[in-house]
Fold this protein.
Amino acid sequence: MAHTVEAHENACVPKRGEPFRILEMPFSKAENIVDAAIVDGKVIVDKDILGDEQVLYDWPAVYVLDNGKKAYVGQTTNFTRRMGDHGRNDEKRGFTRANLITHPEFNQSVIIDYEHKLISLMAADGKYELTNKNNGWDECDFFSRSIYDEMFEDLWEELRGIKLVDKTIAEIENSEVFKYSPYKELNLDQKVALEKILSAVLDAQKTNRALCEPIVVDGKPGTGKTILALFLLKMLKDRAADKDDELFGKRIFLVEPISSIRKTVKEAVGVIPGIRKKDIIGPYDLVKLEYGLTTDGHPGIDICIVDESHRLKRFKNLGQQNSNYMQKCALLGMEAATTTQVDWVLKTCKLPIFLYDSRQSVLPSDVEHHTFSDRLGDSFEHPIMLDKQMRVKGGNRYLDYIEDILKEKDPIIQEFPEYELCLHKSFASFNESFVEHLEYAELTRMVAGYGWKWNSRDDDSRAKTDIHIDGIDKRWNSMTENWVGEGQEDEFYANEVGCIHSVQGYDLSYAYVIFGPEICYDKQRQAIVIDQVRYFDKNGKRGSTPEDVDAFIRNIYYVLLTRGIEGTHVYVYDAALRKYLSRYMDVVD
Protein backbone atom coordinates (compact mmCIF):
# COMPACT_ATOMS: atom_id res chain seq x y z
CA MET A 1 0.00 0.00 0.00
CA ALA A 2 1.28 3.47 -0.90
CA HIS A 3 1.90 5.88 1.95
CA THR A 4 3.06 9.48 2.33
CA VAL A 5 6.57 10.22 3.56
CA GLU A 6 7.05 13.75 4.86
CA ALA A 7 10.29 15.52 4.03
CA HIS A 8 12.70 15.97 6.93
CA GLU A 9 13.07 19.57 8.11
CA ASN A 10 16.71 19.42 7.04
CA ALA A 11 15.89 18.07 3.57
CA CYS A 12 18.36 19.30 0.97
CA VAL A 13 17.30 22.42 -0.93
CA PRO A 14 19.30 24.04 -3.72
CA LYS A 15 21.85 26.65 -2.75
CA ARG A 16 21.20 29.71 -4.88
CA GLY A 17 24.74 30.95 -4.30
CA GLU A 18 26.29 27.97 -6.09
CA PRO A 19 27.58 29.05 -9.53
CA PHE A 20 26.41 27.65 -12.85
CA ARG A 21 29.05 26.08 -15.08
CA ILE A 22 28.74 27.07 -18.72
CA LEU A 23 31.26 25.25 -20.88
CA GLU A 24 31.67 26.21 -24.53
CA MET A 25 33.31 23.92 -27.08
CA PRO A 26 33.40 23.35 -30.83
CA PHE A 27 30.63 20.93 -31.75
CA SER A 28 33.00 18.95 -33.97
CA LYS A 29 35.05 18.06 -30.88
CA ALA A 30 32.14 17.71 -28.50
CA GLU A 31 30.60 14.97 -30.64
CA ASN A 32 33.80 12.88 -30.58
CA ILE A 33 34.57 12.81 -26.85
CA VAL A 34 36.00 9.46 -25.68
CA ASP A 35 37.63 10.31 -22.37
CA ALA A 36 37.84 13.99 -21.57
CA ALA A 37 37.83 16.69 -18.94
CA ILE A 38 36.95 20.35 -19.21
CA VAL A 39 39.89 22.59 -18.48
CA ASP A 40 39.57 26.35 -18.90
CA GLY A 41 36.47 25.85 -20.99
CA LYS A 42 38.18 23.57 -23.53
CA VAL A 43 37.73 19.89 -24.28
CA ILE A 44 40.97 17.98 -23.79
CA VAL A 45 40.90 14.41 -25.06
CA ASP A 46 43.09 12.47 -22.65
CA LYS A 47 41.91 9.46 -20.70
CA ASP A 48 44.50 10.13 -17.99
CA ILE A 49 43.05 13.50 -17.03
CA LEU A 50 40.63 13.19 -14.13
CA GLY A 51 38.45 15.55 -12.13
CA ASP A 52 35.75 17.02 -14.35
CA GLU A 53 34.64 14.11 -16.49
CA GLN A 54 31.52 13.54 -14.37
CA VAL A 55 29.82 16.56 -15.92
CA LEU A 56 30.41 14.98 -19.33
CA TYR A 57 29.42 11.40 -18.55
CA ASP A 58 27.14 11.27 -15.57
CA TRP A 59 25.45 14.52 -14.54
CA PRO A 60 22.17 16.29 -15.44
CA ALA A 61 22.72 19.20 -17.81
CA VAL A 62 21.10 21.37 -20.43
CA TYR A 63 22.89 22.40 -23.60
CA VAL A 64 22.59 24.70 -26.59
CA LEU A 65 23.92 23.85 -30.04
CA ASP A 66 24.29 26.72 -32.50
CA ASN A 67 25.94 27.83 -35.73
CA GLY A 68 25.52 31.57 -35.37
CA LYS A 69 22.06 31.57 -37.00
CA LYS A 70 20.17 28.52 -35.81
CA ALA A 71 20.14 26.82 -32.41
CA TYR A 72 18.88 23.67 -30.72
CA VAL A 73 18.22 23.30 -26.98
CA GLY A 74 18.34 19.95 -25.21
CA GLN A 75 18.84 18.23 -21.86
CA THR A 76 20.72 15.07 -20.92
CA THR A 77 22.29 13.09 -18.09
CA ASN A 78 25.17 11.96 -20.33
CA PHE A 79 26.48 14.85 -22.38
CA THR A 80 29.18 12.83 -24.16
CA ARG A 81 26.81 10.15 -25.39
CA ARG A 82 24.19 12.73 -26.39
CA MET A 83 26.72 14.68 -28.48
CA GLY A 84 27.70 11.44 -30.18
CA ASP A 85 24.05 10.84 -31.06
CA HIS A 86 23.72 14.35 -32.44
CA GLY A 87 26.92 13.96 -34.43
CA ARG A 88 25.34 11.07 -36.32
CA ASN A 89 22.14 13.05 -36.98
CA ASP A 90 22.04 14.84 -40.33
CA GLU A 91 19.84 17.62 -38.91
CA LYS A 92 22.44 18.43 -36.23
CA ARG A 93 25.59 18.28 -38.38
CA GLY A 94 25.23 21.93 -39.34
CA PHE A 95 25.93 23.13 -35.78
CA THR A 96 29.41 24.36 -34.98
CA ARG A 97 29.30 25.04 -31.23
CA ALA A 98 28.09 23.22 -28.12
CA ASN A 99 27.33 25.07 -24.87
CA LEU A 100 27.05 22.81 -21.82
CA ILE A 101 25.18 24.24 -18.80
CA THR A 102 25.28 22.44 -15.48
CA HIS A 103 24.97 23.05 -11.73
CA PRO A 104 25.80 21.00 -8.61
CA GLU A 105 22.09 20.98 -7.63
CA PHE A 106 20.66 19.90 -10.99
CA ASN A 107 18.36 16.88 -11.19
CA GLN A 108 16.21 15.34 -13.93
CA SER A 109 13.11 17.43 -13.16
CA VAL A 110 15.10 20.65 -13.15
CA ILE A 111 16.84 20.10 -16.47
CA ILE A 112 13.54 19.25 -18.19
CA ASP A 113 12.06 22.47 -16.78
CA TYR A 114 15.12 24.53 -17.75
CA GLU A 115 15.10 23.04 -21.25
CA HIS A 116 11.50 24.17 -21.71
CA LYS A 117 12.23 27.62 -20.28
CA LEU A 118 15.23 28.09 -22.57
CA ILE A 119 13.32 27.00 -25.67
CA SER A 120 10.35 29.23 -24.86
CA LEU A 121 12.46 32.31 -24.13
CA MET A 122 15.10 31.82 -26.83
CA ALA A 123 12.42 31.36 -29.50
CA ALA A 124 11.04 34.80 -28.61
CA ASP A 125 14.45 36.39 -27.97
CA GLY A 126 15.13 36.24 -31.70
CA LYS A 127 18.92 35.92 -31.65
CA TYR A 128 18.64 32.41 -33.08
CA GLU A 129 16.07 30.51 -35.10
CA LEU A 130 15.30 27.46 -32.99
CA THR A 131 14.98 24.05 -34.65
CA ASN A 132 13.24 22.33 -31.72
CA LYS A 133 9.88 20.61 -32.05
CA ASN A 134 7.30 21.15 -29.30
CA ASN A 135 6.13 17.61 -28.54
CA GLY A 136 6.27 16.31 -24.97
CA TRP A 137 5.71 19.65 -23.21
CA ASP A 138 3.84 18.96 -19.96
CA GLU A 139 3.50 21.23 -16.95
CA CYS A 140 4.64 19.57 -13.71
CA ASP A 141 5.76 20.62 -10.25
CA PHE A 142 8.81 19.44 -8.31
CA PHE A 143 10.65 19.98 -5.04
CA SER A 144 11.93 23.55 -4.46
CA ARG A 145 10.70 24.69 -7.87
CA SER A 146 10.33 28.31 -6.71
CA ILE A 147 14.03 28.43 -5.80
CA TYR A 148 15.05 26.90 -9.13
CA ASP A 149 12.86 29.48 -10.87
CA GLU A 150 14.83 32.26 -9.16
CA MET A 151 18.08 30.54 -10.09
CA PHE A 152 17.00 30.42 -13.73
CA GLU A 153 16.80 34.22 -13.77
CA ASP A 154 20.47 34.29 -12.71
CA LEU A 155 21.36 31.78 -15.42
CA TRP A 156 19.60 33.84 -18.08
CA GLU A 157 21.62 36.91 -17.15
CA GLU A 158 24.81 34.83 -17.40
CA LEU A 159 23.75 33.72 -20.90
CA ARG A 160 23.21 37.36 -21.80
CA GLY A 161 26.69 38.09 -20.49
CA ILE A 162 28.27 35.58 -22.90
CA LYS A 163 26.05 36.82 -25.78
CA LEU A 164 24.14 33.55 -26.15
CA VAL A 165 20.88 35.50 -25.75
CA ASP A 166 20.09 39.21 -26.10
CA LYS A 167 16.95 40.41 -24.31
CA THR A 168 15.95 40.37 -20.64
CA ILE A 169 13.26 37.97 -19.48
CA ALA A 170 10.96 40.93 -18.76
CA GLU A 171 11.40 42.27 -22.31
CA ILE A 172 10.65 38.86 -23.79
CA GLU A 173 7.62 38.11 -21.61
CA ASN A 174 6.07 41.45 -22.59
CA SER A 175 6.45 40.69 -26.30
CA GLU A 176 3.70 39.39 -28.57
CA VAL A 177 6.14 36.83 -30.01
CA PHE A 178 6.42 35.22 -26.57
CA LYS A 179 2.70 35.37 -25.79
CA TYR A 180 1.81 33.62 -29.04
CA SER A 181 4.73 31.19 -29.11
CA PRO A 182 3.88 27.49 -29.63
CA TYR A 183 6.75 26.64 -27.27
CA LYS A 184 4.71 26.53 -24.08
CA GLU A 185 4.27 24.07 -21.25
CA LEU A 186 0.68 22.83 -21.30
CA ASN A 187 -1.33 22.64 -18.10
CA LEU A 188 -3.32 19.51 -17.26
CA ASP A 189 -6.52 20.79 -18.93
CA GLN A 190 -4.66 21.58 -22.14
CA LYS A 191 -2.75 18.30 -22.06
CA VAL A 192 -5.97 16.29 -21.74
CA ALA A 193 -7.54 18.35 -24.53
CA LEU A 194 -4.47 17.85 -26.74
CA GLU A 195 -4.51 14.08 -26.23
CA LYS A 196 -8.22 13.90 -27.10
CA ILE A 197 -7.68 16.02 -30.20
CA LEU A 198 -4.67 14.00 -31.39
CA SER A 199 -6.58 10.76 -30.85
CA ALA A 200 -9.47 12.09 -32.95
CA VAL A 201 -7.08 13.37 -35.62
CA LEU A 202 -5.32 10.02 -35.94
CA ASP A 203 -8.61 8.12 -35.96
CA ALA A 204 -9.85 10.40 -38.74
CA GLN A 205 -6.83 9.53 -40.90
CA LYS A 206 -7.89 5.89 -40.86
CA THR A 207 -11.23 6.65 -42.51
CA ASN A 208 -11.91 7.30 -46.15
CA ARG A 209 -14.71 9.73 -45.45
CA ALA A 210 -14.56 13.08 -47.21
CA LEU A 211 -15.66 14.81 -43.99
CA CYS A 212 -14.95 13.79 -40.40
CA GLU A 213 -16.70 14.53 -37.12
CA PRO A 214 -15.77 18.08 -36.05
CA ILE A 215 -13.99 18.71 -32.75
CA VAL A 216 -15.07 21.50 -30.39
CA VAL A 217 -13.00 22.93 -27.51
CA ASP A 218 -14.91 25.24 -25.14
CA GLY A 219 -13.34 27.57 -22.59
CA LYS A 220 -13.81 30.91 -20.85
CA PRO A 221 -11.50 33.87 -21.50
CA GLY A 222 -7.95 33.16 -20.39
CA THR A 223 -8.17 29.36 -20.39
CA GLY A 224 -5.50 29.06 -23.07
CA LYS A 225 -7.52 28.34 -26.22
CA THR A 226 -5.18 30.29 -28.51
CA ILE A 227 -2.08 28.80 -26.84
CA LEU A 228 -3.52 25.33 -27.42
CA ALA A 229 -4.35 26.20 -31.03
CA LEU A 230 -0.81 27.37 -31.79
CA PHE A 231 0.77 24.47 -29.90
CA LEU A 232 -1.38 22.06 -31.89
CA LEU A 233 -0.56 23.80 -35.18
CA LYS A 234 3.19 23.51 -34.53
CA MET A 235 2.94 19.85 -33.50
CA LEU A 236 0.78 18.85 -36.47
CA LYS A 237 2.90 20.81 -38.97
CA ASP A 238 6.06 19.10 -37.68
CA ARG A 239 4.42 15.71 -38.09
CA ALA A 240 3.15 16.62 -41.56
CA ALA A 241 6.77 17.35 -42.56
CA ASP A 242 8.03 13.96 -41.31
CA LYS A 243 8.10 11.36 -44.12
CA ASP A 244 7.75 8.55 -41.58
CA ASP A 245 4.68 10.01 -39.86
CA GLU A 246 1.10 9.04 -40.72
CA LEU A 247 0.26 12.76 -41.04
CA PHE A 248 2.97 13.31 -43.65
CA GLY A 249 1.87 15.66 -46.42
CA LYS A 250 -1.36 16.78 -44.73
CA ARG A 251 -2.51 20.34 -45.42
CA ILE A 252 -2.99 22.06 -42.07
CA PHE A 253 -4.03 25.67 -41.38
CA LEU A 254 -5.07 27.92 -38.49
CA VAL A 255 -8.05 30.22 -39.07
CA GLU A 256 -8.04 33.45 -37.02
CA PRO A 257 -11.35 35.30 -37.58
CA ILE A 258 -10.26 38.48 -35.73
CA SER A 259 -8.03 40.44 -38.12
CA SER A 260 -5.97 42.13 -35.38
CA ILE A 261 -5.15 38.79 -33.74
CA ARG A 262 -4.42 37.27 -37.14
CA LYS A 263 -1.85 39.95 -37.95
CA THR A 264 -0.21 39.62 -34.53
CA VAL A 265 -0.04 35.83 -34.72
CA LYS A 266 1.43 35.95 -38.24
CA GLU A 267 4.25 38.15 -36.98
CA ALA A 268 4.77 35.99 -33.89
CA VAL A 269 5.10 32.70 -35.78
CA GLY A 270 7.34 34.21 -38.43
CA VAL A 271 10.38 33.14 -36.38
CA ILE A 272 9.09 29.60 -35.66
CA PRO A 273 10.53 26.83 -37.89
CA GLY A 274 7.92 24.60 -39.48
CA ILE A 275 5.19 27.28 -39.52
CA ARG A 276 4.78 29.78 -42.35
CA LYS A 277 2.94 33.08 -42.09
CA LYS A 278 0.56 31.86 -44.79
CA ASP A 279 -0.46 28.97 -42.52
CA ILE A 280 -2.41 31.60 -40.52
CA ILE A 281 -5.45 32.54 -42.57
CA GLY A 282 -8.78 34.36 -42.29
CA PRO A 283 -12.22 32.85 -42.95
CA TYR A 284 -12.41 34.39 -46.43
CA ASP A 285 -9.16 32.62 -47.38
CA LEU A 286 -10.92 29.27 -46.96
CA VAL A 287 -12.75 29.90 -50.23
CA LYS A 288 -9.60 30.28 -52.33
CA LEU A 289 -8.04 27.63 -54.58
CA GLU A 290 -4.72 27.83 -52.74
CA TYR A 291 -6.45 26.86 -49.50
CA GLY A 292 -9.82 25.13 -49.13
CA LEU A 293 -11.63 25.63 -52.44
CA THR A 294 -11.29 22.84 -55.02
CA THR A 295 -12.69 22.30 -58.51
CA ASP A 296 -14.12 18.88 -57.65
CA GLY A 297 -15.99 20.01 -54.51
CA HIS A 298 -13.88 17.96 -52.11
CA PRO A 299 -12.30 19.69 -49.09
CA GLY A 300 -8.92 21.24 -49.90
CA ILE A 301 -7.74 21.33 -46.29
CA ASP A 302 -7.08 18.20 -44.25
CA ILE A 303 -7.03 19.73 -40.76
CA CYS A 304 -8.29 23.22 -39.94
CA ILE A 305 -7.94 24.74 -36.46
CA VAL A 306 -10.43 27.61 -35.98
CA ASP A 307 -9.47 29.90 -33.12
CA GLU A 308 -11.99 32.41 -31.69
CA SER A 309 -14.69 30.59 -33.65
CA HIS A 310 -17.40 32.54 -31.80
CA ARG A 311 -16.36 35.45 -34.07
CA LEU A 312 -17.11 33.62 -37.33
CA LYS A 313 -19.69 35.56 -39.37
CA ARG A 314 -23.18 35.17 -40.75
CA PHE A 315 -24.78 37.29 -43.50
CA LYS A 316 -25.80 40.25 -41.35
CA ASN A 317 -24.40 43.77 -40.85
CA LEU A 318 -21.23 42.98 -42.81
CA GLY A 319 -20.95 46.44 -44.35
CA GLN A 320 -18.34 46.54 -47.10
CA GLN A 321 -17.88 42.76 -46.89
CA ASN A 322 -21.44 42.02 -48.06
CA SER A 323 -20.47 41.59 -51.72
CA ASN A 324 -17.37 39.51 -50.92
CA TYR A 325 -19.42 37.27 -48.63
CA MET A 326 -22.01 36.60 -51.36
CA GLN A 327 -19.26 35.80 -53.88
CA LYS A 328 -17.66 33.27 -51.54
CA CYS A 329 -21.00 31.59 -50.89
CA ALA A 330 -21.65 31.40 -54.65
CA LEU A 331 -18.28 29.70 -55.22
CA LEU A 332 -19.34 27.05 -52.72
CA GLY A 333 -22.79 26.68 -54.29
CA MET A 334 -24.54 28.13 -51.23
CA GLU A 335 -27.10 30.86 -50.62
CA ALA A 336 -25.63 33.73 -48.59
CA ALA A 337 -28.82 34.34 -46.60
CA THR A 338 -28.77 30.84 -45.10
CA THR A 339 -25.02 30.27 -44.98
CA THR A 340 -22.52 31.05 -42.23
CA GLN A 341 -18.74 30.87 -42.10
CA VAL A 342 -19.18 27.70 -40.03
CA ASP A 343 -20.60 26.21 -43.23
CA TRP A 344 -17.55 27.44 -45.14
CA VAL A 345 -15.29 25.59 -42.69
CA LEU A 346 -17.31 22.38 -42.93
CA LYS A 347 -17.32 22.55 -46.74
CA THR A 348 -13.59 23.22 -47.22
CA CYS A 349 -12.00 21.21 -44.37
CA LYS A 350 -11.98 17.45 -43.85
CA LEU A 351 -11.41 17.72 -40.10
CA PRO A 352 -12.24 21.06 -38.42
CA ILE A 353 -11.30 21.89 -34.82
CA PHE A 354 -13.31 24.78 -33.33
CA LEU A 355 -12.17 26.73 -30.24
CA TYR A 356 -15.23 28.47 -28.86
CA ASP A 357 -16.70 30.68 -26.11
CA SER A 358 -20.29 31.92 -26.46
CA ARG A 359 -19.65 34.61 -23.82
CA GLN A 360 -17.39 36.44 -26.28
CA SER A 361 -19.89 36.93 -29.10
CA VAL A 362 -20.14 40.72 -29.36
CA LEU A 363 -21.76 41.62 -32.71
CA PRO A 364 -25.00 40.77 -34.56
CA SER A 365 -22.85 39.45 -37.43
CA ASP A 366 -21.38 36.73 -35.19
CA VAL A 367 -22.75 33.23 -35.81
CA GLU A 368 -25.46 32.51 -33.27
CA HIS A 369 -25.15 29.86 -30.58
CA HIS A 370 -28.06 27.80 -31.91
CA THR A 371 -26.46 27.72 -35.39
CA PHE A 372 -23.27 26.22 -33.97
CA SER A 373 -25.40 23.63 -32.20
CA ASP A 374 -27.34 22.84 -35.37
CA ARG A 375 -24.27 22.53 -37.60
CA LEU A 376 -21.91 20.73 -35.21
CA GLY A 377 -24.40 18.58 -33.33
CA ASP A 378 -23.11 16.32 -30.58
CA SER A 379 -19.57 17.68 -30.87
CA PHE A 380 -20.88 21.10 -29.87
CA GLU A 381 -23.16 19.84 -27.12
CA HIS A 382 -20.37 17.74 -25.57
CA PRO A 383 -17.16 19.70 -26.18
CA ILE A 384 -13.67 19.21 -24.81
CA MET A 385 -13.53 21.64 -21.89
CA LEU A 386 -10.74 24.00 -20.79
CA ASP A 387 -11.36 25.20 -17.24
CA LYS A 388 -8.07 26.30 -15.68
CA GLN A 389 -7.60 30.08 -15.71
CA MET A 390 -4.22 31.06 -17.19
CA ARG A 391 -4.60 34.83 -17.68
CA VAL A 392 -6.47 36.51 -14.83
CA LYS A 393 -4.79 36.09 -11.45
CA GLY A 394 -8.22 36.37 -9.83
CA GLY A 395 -8.95 32.95 -11.34
CA ASN A 396 -12.27 31.48 -12.41
CA ARG A 397 -13.85 32.87 -9.26
CA TYR A 398 -13.22 36.38 -10.62
CA LEU A 399 -14.66 35.53 -14.06
CA ASP A 400 -17.79 34.05 -12.50
CA TYR A 401 -18.13 37.10 -10.24
CA ILE A 402 -17.94 39.52 -13.18
CA GLU A 403 -20.44 37.48 -15.17
CA ASP A 404 -22.88 37.43 -12.25
CA ILE A 405 -22.54 41.20 -11.75
CA LEU A 406 -23.27 41.93 -15.41
CA LYS A 407 -26.23 39.53 -15.38
CA GLU A 408 -27.51 41.16 -12.15
CA LYS A 409 -27.51 37.96 -10.11
CA ASP A 410 -26.56 39.91 -6.97
CA PRO A 411 -23.54 37.75 -6.14
CA ILE A 412 -22.02 37.50 -2.68
CA ILE A 413 -19.29 40.15 -2.38
CA GLN A 414 -15.90 38.64 -3.22
CA GLU A 415 -12.35 39.69 -2.42
CA PHE A 416 -9.33 38.84 -4.57
CA PRO A 417 -6.08 39.18 -2.57
CA GLU A 418 -3.94 38.35 -5.63
CA TYR A 419 -5.82 40.67 -7.98
CA GLU A 420 -6.53 44.41 -8.16
CA LEU A 421 -10.24 45.05 -8.69
CA CYS A 422 -11.36 48.56 -7.82
CA LEU A 423 -13.83 51.27 -8.80
CA HIS A 424 -12.64 54.88 -9.06
CA LYS A 425 -14.88 57.69 -7.86
CA SER A 426 -13.44 60.20 -10.30
CA PHE A 427 -12.07 59.98 -13.80
CA ALA A 428 -9.07 62.06 -12.71
CA SER A 429 -8.13 59.38 -10.16
CA PHE A 430 -8.74 56.67 -12.75
CA ASN A 431 -6.54 58.38 -15.33
CA GLU A 432 -3.76 59.14 -12.84
CA SER A 433 -3.68 55.52 -11.71
CA PHE A 434 -3.52 54.40 -15.34
CA VAL A 435 -0.48 56.58 -16.02
CA GLU A 436 1.26 55.22 -12.91
CA HIS A 437 0.68 51.59 -13.90
CA LEU A 438 1.72 52.20 -17.51
CA GLU A 439 5.09 53.42 -16.23
CA TYR A 440 6.12 49.94 -15.07
CA ALA A 441 3.63 47.61 -16.81
CA GLU A 442 3.80 48.55 -20.48
CA LEU A 443 0.91 46.30 -21.52
CA THR A 444 -1.49 48.33 -19.39
CA ARG A 445 -4.28 49.77 -21.56
CA MET A 446 -7.42 51.88 -21.13
CA VAL A 447 -10.50 50.43 -22.85
CA ALA A 448 -14.18 51.34 -23.11
CA GLY A 449 -17.59 50.42 -24.43
CA TYR A 450 -18.64 52.11 -27.66
CA GLY A 451 -20.38 55.05 -25.95
CA TRP A 452 -18.64 57.84 -27.89
CA LYS A 453 -18.43 58.58 -31.62
CA TRP A 454 -15.14 57.86 -33.39
CA ASN A 455 -14.53 61.41 -34.63
CA SER A 456 -10.76 60.94 -34.88
CA ARG A 457 -11.03 57.99 -37.26
CA ASP A 458 -9.52 59.75 -40.30
CA ASP A 459 -7.36 62.19 -38.37
CA ASP A 460 -3.66 61.73 -39.16
CA SER A 461 -2.63 64.80 -37.17
CA ARG A 462 -3.21 63.03 -33.84
CA ALA A 463 -4.91 66.21 -32.65
CA LYS A 464 -8.56 65.14 -32.48
CA THR A 465 -10.07 63.52 -29.40
CA ASP A 466 -13.30 61.56 -28.93
CA ILE A 467 -13.93 60.95 -25.23
CA HIS A 468 -14.44 63.88 -22.88
CA ILE A 469 -14.93 63.23 -19.16
CA ASP A 470 -14.53 65.80 -16.38
CA GLY A 471 -12.23 68.01 -18.42
CA ILE A 472 -9.98 65.15 -19.55
CA ASP A 473 -9.84 64.36 -23.27
CA LYS A 474 -9.09 60.93 -24.71
CA ARG A 475 -8.84 59.50 -28.20
CA TRP A 476 -10.12 56.20 -29.55
CA ASN A 477 -7.57 53.67 -30.81
CA SER A 478 -6.02 54.89 -34.07
CA MET A 479 -5.88 51.33 -35.42
CA THR A 480 -7.57 48.02 -34.70
CA GLU A 481 -4.80 45.72 -35.92
CA ASN A 482 -2.15 45.12 -33.25
CA TRP A 483 -3.08 48.28 -31.32
CA VAL A 484 -1.95 46.65 -28.06
CA GLY A 485 1.45 45.73 -29.48
CA GLU A 486 1.99 49.06 -31.23
CA GLY A 487 1.58 50.75 -27.86
CA GLN A 488 4.85 49.16 -26.76
CA GLU A 489 6.65 50.98 -29.57
CA ASP A 490 4.79 54.30 -29.44
CA GLU A 491 3.41 55.75 -26.19
CA PHE A 492 0.86 57.75 -28.18
CA TYR A 493 -1.02 54.52 -28.93
CA ALA A 494 -0.55 53.28 -25.37
CA ASN A 495 -2.37 56.36 -24.07
CA GLU A 496 -5.37 55.97 -26.38
CA VAL A 497 -8.60 54.21 -25.38
CA GLY A 498 -9.20 50.84 -27.02
CA CYS A 499 -12.57 49.54 -28.17
CA ILE A 500 -13.63 45.90 -28.06
CA HIS A 501 -12.34 45.27 -31.59
CA SER A 502 -8.80 46.31 -30.65
CA VAL A 503 -8.39 44.17 -27.52
CA GLN A 504 -10.49 41.01 -27.85
CA GLY A 505 -8.13 38.04 -27.67
CA TYR A 506 -5.27 40.05 -26.11
CA ASP A 507 -3.75 39.89 -22.65
CA LEU A 508 -3.18 43.16 -20.77
CA SER A 509 -1.08 43.73 -17.66
CA TYR A 510 -3.77 45.96 -16.15
CA ALA A 511 -7.10 46.75 -17.80
CA TYR A 512 -8.58 50.19 -17.16
CA VAL A 513 -12.23 49.79 -18.17
CA ILE A 514 -14.57 52.75 -18.78
CA PHE A 515 -18.28 51.95 -18.61
CA GLY A 516 -19.59 54.42 -21.19
CA PRO A 517 -22.86 56.39 -21.28
CA GLU A 518 -24.58 53.61 -23.27
CA ILE A 519 -24.89 51.46 -20.14
CA CYS A 520 -26.79 52.90 -17.15
CA TYR A 521 -28.70 52.00 -14.01
CA ASP A 522 -32.46 52.64 -13.83
CA LYS A 523 -33.29 53.37 -10.18
CA GLN A 524 -37.02 52.90 -10.64
CA ARG A 525 -36.65 49.51 -12.32
CA GLN A 526 -33.60 48.72 -10.19
CA ALA A 527 -31.92 47.27 -13.22
CA ILE A 528 -28.99 47.83 -15.58
CA VAL A 529 -30.32 49.23 -18.85
CA ILE A 530 -28.88 49.97 -22.30
CA ASP A 531 -29.33 53.34 -23.99
CA GLN A 532 -29.13 52.35 -27.67
CA VAL A 533 -29.12 56.00 -28.77
CA ARG A 534 -25.75 56.41 -27.07
CA TYR A 535 -24.29 53.18 -28.48
CA PHE A 536 -22.35 54.22 -31.58
CA ASP A 537 -21.29 50.92 -33.14
CA LYS A 538 -23.69 50.94 -36.11
CA ASN A 539 -22.89 47.39 -37.13
CA GLY A 540 -23.36 46.41 -33.49
CA LYS A 541 -27.05 47.22 -33.43
CA ARG A 542 -28.46 47.53 -36.98
CA GLY A 543 -31.26 45.01 -37.55
CA SER A 544 -31.06 43.63 -34.01
CA THR A 545 -33.69 43.52 -31.30
CA PRO A 546 -33.17 45.59 -28.13
CA GLU A 547 -32.72 42.32 -26.24
CA ASP A 548 -29.94 41.20 -28.58
CA VAL A 549 -28.13 44.55 -28.34
CA ASP A 550 -28.41 44.38 -24.56
CA ALA A 551 -26.78 40.93 -24.58
CA PHE A 552 -24.00 42.03 -26.96
CA ILE A 553 -23.10 45.06 -24.82
CA ARG A 554 -22.98 43.01 -21.63
CA ASN A 555 -20.73 40.52 -23.44
CA ILE A 556 -18.48 43.39 -24.54
CA TYR A 557 -17.98 44.50 -20.94
CA TYR A 558 -17.42 40.90 -19.87
CA VAL A 559 -14.60 40.66 -22.43
CA LEU A 560 -13.10 44.03 -21.41
CA LEU A 561 -13.24 43.14 -17.71
CA THR A 562 -11.41 39.84 -18.31
CA ARG A 563 -8.34 41.19 -20.18
CA GLY A 564 -6.20 42.20 -17.19
CA ILE A 565 -3.62 39.74 -15.86
CA GLU A 566 -2.71 41.63 -12.70
CA GLY A 567 -5.84 43.70 -12.17
CA THR A 568 -8.85 45.62 -13.47
CA HIS A 569 -9.63 49.25 -12.62
CA VAL A 570 -13.10 50.59 -13.39
CA TYR A 571 -14.61 54.01 -14.00
CA VAL A 572 -18.36 54.34 -14.64
CA TYR A 573 -19.75 57.33 -16.58
CA ASP A 574 -23.31 56.95 -15.27
CA ALA A 575 -23.48 58.00 -11.59
CA ALA A 576 -26.32 55.63 -10.73
CA LEU A 577 -24.53 52.66 -12.26
CA ARG A 578 -21.33 53.72 -10.47
CA LYS A 579 -23.19 53.60 -7.16
CA TYR A 580 -24.73 50.22 -8.01
CA LEU A 581 -21.36 48.66 -8.94
CA SER A 582 -19.78 50.06 -5.77
CA ARG A 583 -21.62 47.29 -3.91
CA TYR A 584 -19.32 44.76 -5.53
CA MET A 585 -15.96 46.52 -5.87
CA ASP A 586 -13.59 48.38 -3.59
CA VAL A 587 -14.02 52.11 -4.15
CA VAL A 588 -10.96 54.36 -4.37
CA ASP A 589 -10.81 58.16 -4.45
Notes: The two ends are 59 Å apart (CA to CA). The domain at 395-588 is CATH 3.40.50.300 (Rossmann fold). The chain has three domains: 21-170, 188-386, 395-588. Residues 191 and 542 are 42 Å apart (CA to CA).
